[in-house]
Amino acid sequence: MTKTEKYIAAIREIEIRLEKGGDLIADLCNVAAVLKKRLAFFWIGFYLLKNNQLVLGPFQGSPACVFLKIGEGVCGTCADQRDTLIVPDVHQFPGHVACDPNSKS
Question: 100: how many CB neighbours lie within 10 A of its CB?
């Protein structure tokens, strides 16, 4: 399958699962599992905003940092800016939070 075909298949499967869902945590678990399976990401997951910090939510992959400060590292910067960042190598990102040394982006 091409990259585009993999993404289309993932979106279709996620849509089907969300139609039958209705619980935020369970739905996020299924989304992470589908993306990990269909796209073979190293790590896929969600951080949830609680008490002005990011708290680890459902994920697939290696263990991760439980708490991230808003404005620090890639995820904290994304939360602070309320925008998506595409980072080719997180180790080159100022203030990178190294939850796993094998992660790259």
Answer: 14
CA distance 105 to 91: 8
Distance of CA 54 to the CA centre of its chain: 12
Which parts of the chain are beta strand (E)? 44-50, 53-60, 67-69
Q: pTM, whole model, 2 decimals? A: 0.86
Query: Superfamily assignment of 43-105 in CATH?
Result: GAF domain (3.30.450.40)
Cα separation, 80 vs 28, in Å, equals: 21
Beta bridge partners of 45: 59
Res 52 pLDDT > 80:
yes
Tell me the per-residue pLDDT of 9-41, one tens digit each, with 9 for 90 and over: 999 999 999 999 899 999 999 999 999 999 998
Q: How far is CA 11 from CA 16, 35, 56, 73, in A?
A: 9, 9, 23, 28
Nearest to 56 by CA among 91, 101, 15, 25: 25
